[in-house]
Design brief:
Chain lengths: 397, 397
């Protein structure tokens, strides 16, 4: 029995890959960076300086700059929401089936911007970035960040790009929280929001999973109180965190259908013989993850998710929800138990009680939280229709 | 941020404690041990010798020995299913509200036997026991065990006690698997079974949680490939395993009701300030657990649960279910998602298709898997009524 079982089955990639549509021609993109030397003032009052943001854009901005859509990624996502960097890339960006010519976020019509979040590890300043004051990675000296700080960092990027109005902001999971917070923080700039598989505040069960994931990381001796950048990575801890995460991304029924109780081999390293396919799948996902993600980012971003509460500073949850004035299309998936339809509905109900005309669709799916990266045919038309309606509304068409 | 946060709130004990009824007078018991020098031959062909079994009994055996009820404990349970060892004990055995004078398992009428399972760490031979061949704890040289091996070990105990017929076998969770397997392995000896919060085979989601729990343990450097008995315990790993376990024992709705998103203090050791109550609860449960449970037992017992399949060796699941000839009362709880009503119903349906007259009650509860240690008023009468009926049936009353 070892902690790193190296079985790498062929078809166990992320659902986003499996479900990639390849109907249209490939679109190509590149990751760009902008650095703000004056940095960013956080809601805590602390300053991160300089601030670098990694971002990608798709399509062309209109002369009136009225066709901009901002896309916010999930916990372990990045700015690469669509397209390919090179012809030889094995797979496209994480929401590619929704973004491109003729797709829901139609790059023939709209200008799409997607940035890596503040605190991330895919080009935007985060705990792995070098602190110019010390010449070393921030590690735990990186300030605590919130979803609002992520939104404010994106706001600086949009300012830099000369964008003042957003036709829509969309994203799933943690990205959906940023979407909501955009409407709260900058109501005059956000014409519509499309939050997918998200909620106004994480459930205690969601917080519980975040915490055991973090504990797995910080209990790894290689974590070394966050100072591992010059040594061994806390790989075992991060693998376990990712394995737990993947359990919460699937549903019990999708696991049953995909893996059942099938066993796949005799694991020569194990005292216990056969390994179940679901175990092998989780190990595969864990092993892949440590190659690309920073453990400290995982801690900072999950904390930001845990603490996000749309009603922060408000008397009631309804007051929090009522802060959203933008037009809104909410989408959730029936078997999602990490960001459950119940929680999306709680937010939608609160908005409706405040007189907001909210569109909300609970999509039938057995794919759990992963559904927003799988069930494109079931919801992409809702998005395209909604955006067109919003666009016409603001152009008196 | 530390991995061992030492907050110990007052009322966050196991649900069994919180729900203990104290209507009747206390009953007292003692843990007994019997050692079989010839040991036990496992289904694998391996032998564990000697075999010691820790057990407790309650009530008196009838002259005809027709009033014996066997109780099987869950993963981290033990032989102490009811009563107190001493007047000063803070809490009674784990199923005390069901077992005692006038209770569902009425010790005025029945003779109750409960033993610590094979592979456990509460008195019965397990990985922490000394291997007489080496003079050292078995650790991972302990043979792999199955639910059937646990049942066969209990069978030796009952032989020793001169018991040939069981009026009933009952237990919850992993204990429920033993209950089912008793009816399959010794159909002529088992007059009835009362499996609670269990299923004929663990779901892939259940296996997934088992595996990340085990990974947390074996990734702890102190685990040392199972050889930690003379050194530091793999406490961090076992704490994380227990924290994950507790998430699966509660339901999302019970967490919401019990903890909500309340924060309870500023954690001075944390970079991130406030701690949610659910986090504090899980840490408390984890910290308590390492004081009493053996990490290797956790690995062996979860593996036995994962591999248990009532249809093993059968062509179909229905054939597996049809092996149960005993009268049966199944109980599940609506919000249990570790051993969900769907899975209990799968087994019950399969038995009914084979012509078995099975009683099955799905109890409304929001307590999740823990419900079988909480919701006594909702199901104890089902048990007492069922046992009385079985008893009368076999005594032509």
């Amino acid at each position: 029995m070892t902690s790193n079982i190296k079985i790498q089955p062929e078809n166990w990639d992320d659902p986003s890959t499996a479900a990639t549509s390849s109907g249209g021609s490939k679109i190509f993109t590149q990751k760009k960076h902008v650095t703000f030397e004056d940095g960013i003032v956080l809601t805590s009052g602390e300053i991160i300086s300089p601030l670098t943001i990694a971002y990608e854009t798709f399509g062309s901005i209109s002369p009136k700059k009225d066709n901009v859509i901002l896309i916010d990624h999930a916990l372990t996502g990045d700015s690469h929401c669509a397209g390919y960097y090179t012809e030889s890339d094995a797979k496209p960006g994480w929401w590619d089936p929704l973004i491109g010519p003729g797709k829901a976020f139609d790059t023939n019509k709209y200008f799409i911007v997607c940035s890596n979040c503040l605190g991330g590890c895919e080009g935007t300043t985060g705990p792995a970035s070098v602190n110019p004051k010390t010449g070393k990675p921030y590690a735990l000296s990186f300030p605590v960040i919130t979803i609002r700080d992520m939104v404010n960092a994106q706001h600086k990027l949009l300012d830099h790009l000369g964008i003042d109005k957003l036709l829509a902001v969309s994203g799933g999971s943690m990205g959906g929280m940023s979407v909501l917070d955009w409407a709260v923080a900058y109501p005059e700039k956000v014409r519509s929001i499309i939050p997918v598989s998200t909620c106004g505040r994480l459930s205690p069960q969601g917080i519980a999973f975040s915490e055991v994931e973090r504990q797995a990381i910080i209990s790894d001796p290689n974590w070394n109180n966050g100072n591992y950048y010059n040594g061994e990575l806390p790989a075992n801890g991060l693998i376990i965190a990712r394995m737990i995460g993947h359990i919460t991304y699937l549903s019990s029924e999708s696991m049953l259908r995909k893996f059942g109780r099938r066993t796949r081999n005799n694991d020569a390293n194990s005292r216990f013989g056969k390994q179940f396919e679901i175990e092998s799948y989780l190990h595969y996902q864990g092993d892949k993850f440590v190659e690309r993600f920073d453990a400290n980012s995982y801690i900072y971003l999950t904390k930001a998710m845990d603490f996000y509460d749309i009603a922060e500073g408000c008397k009631t949850f309804e007051d929090g929800a009522a802060q959203i004035k933008s037009k809104a299309l909410f989408i959730s998936f029936r078997s999602d138990w990490l960001f459950s339809p119940r929680e999306t509905a709680e937010l939608v109900d609160a908005m409706r009680k405040s007189g907001r005309e909210v569109d909300y669709h609970e999509i039938e799916s057995e794919y759990g939280h992963d559904a927003f990266l799988v069930e494109y045919p079931k919801y992409s038309y809702l998005i395209s229709r909604f955006i067109e309606r919003v666009y016409r509304f603001y152009n008196n068409d």
